[in-house]
Amino acid sequence: MFPPQRGAHKWLKALRAFDGAQAGGNHREIATQVFGARILCEDRNGRSDFRRARVERSIKFARRMVMVATSNSSARGDTFAILLDLTKDMLGKALGIRTAVLVGGGIELVGVGLGVLGPYMLKVLVDVLTAGNASAITLVAYVGLFVVTWAGANILSTWRMVYSTRVIDSLSERYAAEVIRQSLPAAATARDADSGYTLGLVERLPYSLLVVIDGLIWRTVPLLLQVLGSLCVVIGLIPIHYSAILVAVFAGYVATTWIGANHHQARSMTANTAAGAVSQTAGDILRNARRVVLNGALEAEVVNIGHRFQERAAANAQMMGSLSLMALYQYGLVGTGLLALMGLGALDVMAHRMTVGDFVLLQGYAFRLVGPLSGLGFILSQAGLSIACIRDVKRLMQRLEPEVAPTEEPEGAAEITLTSVSFSYGPGLAGLTEITAHVSPGQFVVIVGPNGSGKSTLAQVIAGLLPPSSGSVRIGGQDVGRIRRSDRHRHILYVPQFIGFFNRSLAANALYPPTTQTEASLAQLLAEWHFYEPGRTVDFAAEVGEQGERLSGGQIQKLELARIAGVKSAAVILDESTSALDPISEAAVIARLRQQFGSRTTLILISHREHMAELADQVWFMKTGRLVGQGTHEILMRDSLTYQSLWRTQSA
Ligand SMILES: Nc1ncnc2c1ncn2[C@@H]1O[C@H](COP(=O)(O)OP(=O)(O)OP(=O)(O)O)[C@@H](O)[C@H]1O
After folding, report:
1. Ligand 1 mean position to 193 CA, how many Å?
2. Is the pTM of this model over 0.80?
3. Where would one find coiled-coil regions in this protein (predicted)?
């Protein structure tokens, strides 16, 4: 699909060495694409530098490109499929923009008619002038008609943009909404979610749609109509070989564009990927501003983003190179055609085989054709990138999950049953092995174990965020994977380890659905948990800042737990949600939650604290992805030396 390029084998070797089996059979494409995008780490002397960090960064970039490259059988086929898809969306009933498309199309059609009529009016004027027998009124009328056709065509073309803009805005809104609807659940599940890339796509979407719809679709069709209309007029008026030349020039233009576009589109996809990498890196750096600045890494990150821009510039340069080559062929051909057309015409006028009016008509149509064609050059340069962006957006819009029927409301606390549950993050990566456990309704379970032992992974498998590779998880007797995602929080609600707050008010975060808390009940709970020092009331209107950065770590957890206390769910899993609380606050919060949940909610807590294990109805002890101990804290302390040593190392 992508011809191997010079030096690609070096990348192939390096990527194999560093990437192992990760990228499946795609190394050759990766190497080729990495080379194609000129992101190889060459030092100033031109020698390849495969230093690990840079190669790893490139692998991430390359993987995305391989995803792009391998998911399509051909760039050209892809382009037409996307154009067809867009046209279907515009003309379909679902988006409600058909009327705008049709009205805009109608206006454009009238504009095209005027565009064809313009040169004809000029020819008639020149014919009348050369005949020399027309009255002043007739001449003024012909001049007026010519001006009206010329001005009218341009006014209509601008007016039509009112409708195309409406269409583009509607499509942008619908596509962006669908991308968010479809990609958020995946982002919530994947622990390596790439939100910066998705954000970049959504941001570039309106411009991409503008280029493709307004520039390409809405300009190409009128251009074709204009060519056909002009040919009809020319055939009827002047010798047939002029029409033949016009047809040949246009066909040549289309053919060179067709061939060039295939190559250009492949380069554009690489450029789109490079643009996405800029968004992803910039987003990542901005989100981690504190980490960057506090570690004195500002300059290093500026250099890092500079590299992303350089990669993008290199990809753009390749794209523009292919476009320039295409333009050379296109306009070499069009220029030759014009030379033949005008040269022959001039000779025919000199030999009185053609009137000056016909010559004017000929040049009028020739330049009417060439004008939009040159406009298309710019559009094509942008269209490749834009099509690649829309294609990625369309892929994100695809429904990944089958529709699941609504599930019945759970009654009371959930019974949780795990039968031989295994999970893997991928070949050779950590996961879970053969976990079997049972939680009775309303119990309080604490999961403990060393860092990286699989506690969060297990919690996410139980909550249905990660699908087990074998075995089953049943919540209240139902397979968790079969509970509709939008209903799942009523059966089991997972509170992640890193609580991300919206950059909104305290109330907006603390009363975020599905809590049933009110400001009053929340204020009472927060006062009880000493959210602020005594005497200070909770300001619900206060903005919490990005990720809640204006609150302390303990306050964030208290606020989140106060919200959770008002949630009606059959089971709740708290993933280290009390880790920032002091032991007294932690005990008070857990006691209150258990009292609040009563017998309606089963509670699972992941914790590194022994006193939490002491409070639990049962403790699950995890080690290297296995459940190596189950029972009360006392029993485990009595029976398991490894469990004892877990707490001994902690207190040492
Ligand atoms: N998306 C992922 N891809 C690959 N490996 C992952 C992914 N997420 C987690 N892991 C790995 O799975 C293992 C278990 O991680 P997990 O977060 O479940 O541990 P944990 O017991 O909760 O750790 P901690 O106590 O530090 O929070 C770790 O080795 C981790 O690196």
Report:
1. 14
2. no
3. none
CA–CA dist 104, 91 (Å, integer) = 12
ipTM value greater than 0.95: yes
Q: Identify the residues whose C-beta falls under 6 Å from ligand 1.
A: 191-192, 425, 429-430, 449, 451-457
Residue type, 275: A
Q: Which residues make Cβ contacts (< 8 Å) with residue 648, sequence separation at least 6?
A: none
Residue 51 lies in a domain: yes
Q: Tens digits of per-residue pLDDT, 365-383? A: 777 666 666 666 667 667 7
* Cβ atoms of 401 and 485 closer than 8 Å: yes
Please check the confidence at residue 108 and state whether its pLDDT lies above 60: yes
Q: How far is the CA of 450 from the centre of ligand 1 (A)?
A: 11
Q: Using the atom order of ligand 1, give the atom closest to the CA of residue 459.
A: 18
Residue 108 lies in a domain: yes
State whether residue 646 is helix, strand or coil: helix
User: What is the percent of the chain with per-residue pLDDT over 90, rounded to a whole number?
Assistant: 39
Q: Which one of 456, 576, 649 would you pick to mutate in the ligand 1 pocket, going by the greatest count of ligand atoms within 8 A of its CB?
A: 456
Structure confidence by residue, pLDDT tens digits, 132-154: 888 889 888 888 998 999 899 88
Measure the CA angle with vertex 127, ends 122 and 130; round to 5°.
120
Q: How far is the CA of 457 from the centre of ligand 1 (A)?
A: 6
Judge if 383 and 423 occupy the same domain. Answer: no
- Quote the domain boundaries for residue 297: 76-397
